[in-house]
Amino acid sequence: xxxxxKSEPVKKTAAKRxxxxxxxxxxxxxxxxxxxxxAGNGNGxxxxxxxxxxxxxxxxxxxxxxxSRDREPGKLLIAGMVTWDLVGKKxxxxxxxxxxxxxxxxxxxxxxxxxxxxxxCSSAHSVLITMDRKALTFGRNNLSQLGQPELKTYEKPTxxxxxxxxxxxxxxxxRNHTLFLTDTGxxxxxxxxxxxxxxxxxxxxxxxxxxxxxYNGPPIIKxxxxxxxxxxxxxxxxxxxxxxxxxGQLGHNTDGRYFITSSKMSFHFETSPKRVPLFIxxxxxxxxxxxxxxxxxxxxxxNNHTVAIDSKKRCFxxxxxxxxRLGHAEQKDEMVPRxxxxxxxxxxxxxRVFCGSSFTLAIPDAGQLFLFGQNKxxxxxxxxxxxxxxxxxxxxTDIGCGYTSTVISADDSLIAWGSSPTYGTQxxxxxxxxxxxxxxxxxxxxTITTTILLHYYSPIALILFKLLPCFYYYx
Length: 475
What we know:
Elements: H1 27-30, H2 63-69, E1 74-80, E2 103-118, E3 125-130, E4 135-139, E5 154-159, E6 168-173, E7 177-182, E8 187-192, E9 206-212, E10 220-225, E11 229-234, E12 239-243, E13 257-259, E14 265-267, E15 270-275, E16 280-282, E17 288-290, E18 296-301, E19 305-310, E20 315-319, E21 334-339, E22 350-355, E23 359-364, E24 370-373, E25 382-387, E26 396-401, E27 405-410, E28 413-418, E29 443-447, E30 459-463
Parallel strand pairs: 29-30
Antiparallel strand pairs: 1-2, 1-29, 1-30, 2-3, 3-4, 4-5, 6-7, 7-8, 8-9, 10-11, 11-12, 12-15, 13-14, 16-17, 18-19, 19-20, 20-21, 22-23, 23-24, 24-25, 26-27, 27-28
Domain RCC1-like: 120-422
InterPro entries: RCC1-like_dom (IPR058923), RCC1/BLIP-II (IPR009091), RCC2 (IPR028641), Reg_chr_condens (IPR000408)
Protein name: RCC1-like domain-containing protein
């Protein structure tokens, strides 16, 4: 019998010091030293919590960037289902819900003007940004997603406590959580946090008031929410994700699954923002090549997937691949952002993307609208990007995507379509040149600016002089 080989002594060496950051874009003026990938938690335990000086005066984001986020304000109109407690539910199972009639025509919601109306394709709540950049919320608040003190439905837009001293420039709504972005690049979150989607460094079940996320990197310029995960974009073009890693929707090359017992499985939640470090290109034979020099400029989130555009107008997607929503002609989940080859050619660079719950819309440089995924409950799905021929030649300015519905602002018209049933969310507005029907359980908020948002059950829009919609969509 062979004798055991003796292990060689391990030499102790000093820990390598991280490379000094030499990027001169915004390090010196707008950010502190930071860790690109703060430690996550194993089974819901708290990650390393950062300390913040709330009294510190932070510089604002660059004036050009802030100016690009400004939209012409508009007044709010609403149509569709407005019984917020029933949004996403088949019936009133517990009873006692006050049923309100569906709005089959657009109605004035308030007399105020707003800069922005925000919701998500899986949410039953909404955020309004006022003229003086304050955040108002309304809708369902069963898990504190409105940041309001009482766990009740708020039917009137109400100022978010704790954010009165901040200028809010953007927001995002998940299924039951909300992110707020300030003009200094800080992000605050509230609502459901069982999967760490609020990014506060732990999995406390509910974040009852707007709380700064556990992040100390470069200023954030855009926020987005999936159903149970969140995505933020910093000023240097890096994506950071946190929350539920199922389907690889965080882009960290894992779905986070692990066994608690022999028969019980759980997820390794990311409770703090973690940078997405790798972008890939996959050939037909399965060969994978890293894509270099990726600087993200825009992104959009569906329920369980994300699509992002970089500075070279390349388009990447990752997360749940069902029904072709990632645009790769297959239904495999993508654990890291993968280049969509269809758009990787001359004159096909993507300038804007929009995500519904299970589909994606993209507008290349040529202006033709492409759809991939499934924007209806039954029937065929687009496994790869296909042009929407009915909109050929239209100058599309904005799009709102919901659960199965789409609203488009094009030229001086508002165009809408989607699968039934509807609740008045596909109204024919005679002031608008054209409005095509079929929305699924949504309410619409219109803005007279160039923004469209959709909710799951009713559309909301802010309307301006050109009647460009800002669509809201509820789940």
